[in-house]
Amino acid sequence: MSLRHESLNKYKYQGLSGGREIRLLKLFPGSKGSELKCDLEIVNIDTDIDDCLWSAISYCWATEYWPDRPFLLRCDSSDTERSTFLEVSRTLFNLLTQLQDEETHRYLWIDAICINQSNVVERSQQVNMMGEIYGKANQVIVWLGPEDGRTQAVFAAFELLVSMRTPENPQGMENVMAFGSIDLEEFDRVEPAGGPSLTRDMLALFDRPWFSRAWVLQEVGLGSNVAVLCGSQIIKWQTIGTAVIFFNQKEKSLVEHLKRSADVNRAFHLFTAFRREQTPGTTKFQFLWDHFLYVLDNARPYLATEPRDKVYSLLAHWTARTKEGTSFIEPDYSRSLLEVYREVTLRMIAKTDSLEVLSAVQHDPGSILQKDCKFPTWVPRWDQYYNCQMLGRYTSKHFAGGNSPASIIPVDDIDVLKVQGILFNRTCFQSDVLKSANFNLPPMAIEGPNPVAAIWIAWGLDQIENNCYPRLAPPSSPSLWAAYYSTFTAGMTDPPDGYDMLEPAADFNAYWVHLFENEYAEIERSENASAILEVSRTRRSAKNGDWRRFREAAAGVCNMRRVFMTEKAFLGLGPAVMQKDDIVAVLSGSDTPTVLRRCGRSRYQVIGECYVHGLMQGQARNALRNGALKLYDLELC
User: Fold this and answer.
1) pLDDT for res 374
2) What is the number of alpha carbons within 13 Å of residue 390 lying toward its C-beta?
3) Which of 28, 144, 577, 631 is an S-S bond match for 37, by CB 3.0 to 4.6 Å?
4) Best CA proximity match to 300, nearest among 413, 388, 171, 180
5) Is 544 a domain residue?
């Protein structure tokens, strides 16, 4: 039942005294369809909740229902003229209706109700406590929204799928992944209510809005007892998370075929963001996301109505600490977005003594950077997501800066970051912006010309001797061929989550053979002995390779990037917004080279990180020591 009356008294929040108080919503019992009645009680989170059973709610705010806000809660247990009312969204009204018990009251913590959202000071203070709130709650309840006709069968299917694994230690991530071989077609037949589309429906659950919300990362990550509620159906979060790992690790191809990769990846990160594993043989625990930079980057696909929350929602993560152990930044909604993002960037530089945070700089692929950008180009925009993987990740083995520390030179302008670096070379050729689907091969759906073949031929690389790739300083690439295939995977050997170790040469050769299978077959039917011999050699080199492995690695790394060549004929992989005559620089304290664009005498815009074959193992720093290159003071703006 909902009430709509303009003359009803609106609830007025009683102020919180002290820094450790929170409000709990006391939901009174009632029969189905009766008016919802509640009280808001102020408690001390340290002293008043030990004997109180309460649940913290994780849900999607559903702002689309707020313009008319027709749903009301009566904020006392009596029907008097002094009653006041709280306006809530349809989402919360449906949730409270579902949670209301017929006999006993329930204590709940719901941010939209328990925080006075119109009080900026209180909101900042309470947001700073949300990690504790979800960590101390007896239960975290995830509300996915109303159920549909398939929800019961889908939840049963998740439980059945998880029961089909037999890990030795169910708590260990490695063993959670240890599913045996499961035939999903047979699995669909096992579930009577499922039918042939059961797997599709399971994956469709991850498309629900809750899975794309930034705040839920910490809400479920910190809860010790998390239940997922969809209408009247309930399931353990651990069960859904374990099933997500199965799809992410064992059924990548199926997930991609059903166009659910983004949904499954988001759900996978939800399950692992705050997860920690015990080190075998010790009492120590290790978090799977072990650097705040990677926490922020992995959270980019998640949505937040308030862009400052892309940082604030993650401050409960253990990595969000300075060298002194204090929080990277205190939540403060009176500060501008630029102030928040800039401070986090500077704190990260100070903590790591490096410029690795610049690897997170990404710009809209469809935009043209203006010289008078209001937002400094060296400050990552955590509120913008372009599905472009960071190259300077913890899984990479790059150290283009030769493991040198960052060299920050103080300046008066807070929007300028003055650093030192090597201006290596200008770019002269670049490909179109690449998309993951460009790397598809049969039987996959082909989208656009294949860049592996197109660039090789269009740039005349097939006419260059294999041993003619440029060499700056040891260590260096042995061949043009190696430089070419390494560029498409940014030199990685550790592919994205869920794949076997990449074998760069063999996997690329297998991909090349599959790409030119028709041409090779025609050559083998010809009488050209030398060509047949060359095809035979290529096939032998691809014998132990897996073309799908190379395809997945390249599709992930190259998405929303361009292959480029410098004036000195070095091959690279750079950001989508790069242009001809941009400058490849190796900055002190950075593991990957950086593409810069001059915007003044000594000022440069940060276009983004890049991979350059022949620069990734400290060769530029070696050349600097030998006097072949120079170090410059660079003002990043």
Assistant:
1) 80
2) 25
3) 28
4) 388
5) no
Asked whether the CA dihedral 367, 372, 373, 376 is positive or negative, the reply is positive
Question: What is the reported pTM?
Answer: 0.88
Distance CA 343, CA 635 (A): 18
3-class secondary structure for 537-580?
HHHHHCCCCCHHHHHHHHHHHHCCEEEEEECCCCEEEEECCCCC
Question: What is the pLDDT at residue 199?
Answer: 87
Burial class of residue 97 in the structure, from the number of CB atoms within 10 Å of its CB (0-12 exposed, 13-18 middle, 19+ buried): middle
> Domain range spanning residue 92?
21-137
C-alpha span between 199 and 185 (Å, rounded): 9
The gap from C-alpha 412 to its chain's centroid, in whole angstroms, comes to 34
**Distance (Å, whole) CA 623 – CA 392:** 22
* Cis-peptide, bond into residue 475, ω within 30° of zero: yes
Distance of alpha carbon 582 from alpha carbon 568, whole angstroms: 14
Query: Are 381 and 344 contacting, i.e. CB atoms less than 8 angstroms apart?
Result: no
Helices and strands (H, E) in the chain, number of each type: 22, 19
42 forms beta bridges with: 23
| Six token digits for residue 474 | 């040891």
Residue 90 within a domain: yes
On the question of a cis peptide bond just before residue 443, with omega within 30 degrees of 0, the verdict is: yes
φ, ψ (nearest 5 deg) of residue 296: -65, -40
d(CA 414, CA 395): 32
Determine the Cα–Cα distance for residues 40 and 84; give it in Å rounded to an integer.
Answer: 12
Element (H, E) at 456: helix 451-458
Beta strands in 45-134 (DSSP E): 54-58, 71-74, 85-88, 106-109
Q: Which residue has the tokens 């440029």?
A: 470
Q: What is the DSSP letter of 108?
A: E
pLDDT digits (tens, 9 = 90+) for 323-370: 787 888 999 999 999 999 999 999 999 999 999 999 999 999 887 776
Strand partners, 611: 573
- DSSP string covering 466-507: TT-----SSS--S-HHHHHHHHHTTT-SS-STT-PPP-HHHH
CB atoms within 10 A of CB 456: 16
In a domain, 114, yes or no: yes
Q: Which two tokens stand for residue 227?
A: 């239940």
Q: How many CB atoms lie within 10 A of CB 497?
A: 16
Which amino acid belongs to residue 323?
Answer: K
Helices marked H in 128-182 = 130-136, 151-163, 173-176
Check: CB of residue 338 under 8 Å from CB of residue 345: no
Helix intervals (H) in 210-362:
216-222, 237-250, 252-257, 261-272, 292-298, 309-312, 337-352
CA distance 124 to 115: 10
3-state secondary structure of 603: strand
Question: What is the number of structural domains in the chain?
Answer: 1
Instruction: Please tell me the distance from the alpha carbon of residue 544 to that of residue 88, in angstroms, as a whole number.
Output: 60
Q: Which residues of the chain have pLDDT under 50?
A: 1-5, 63-68, 168-178, 190-196, 496-499
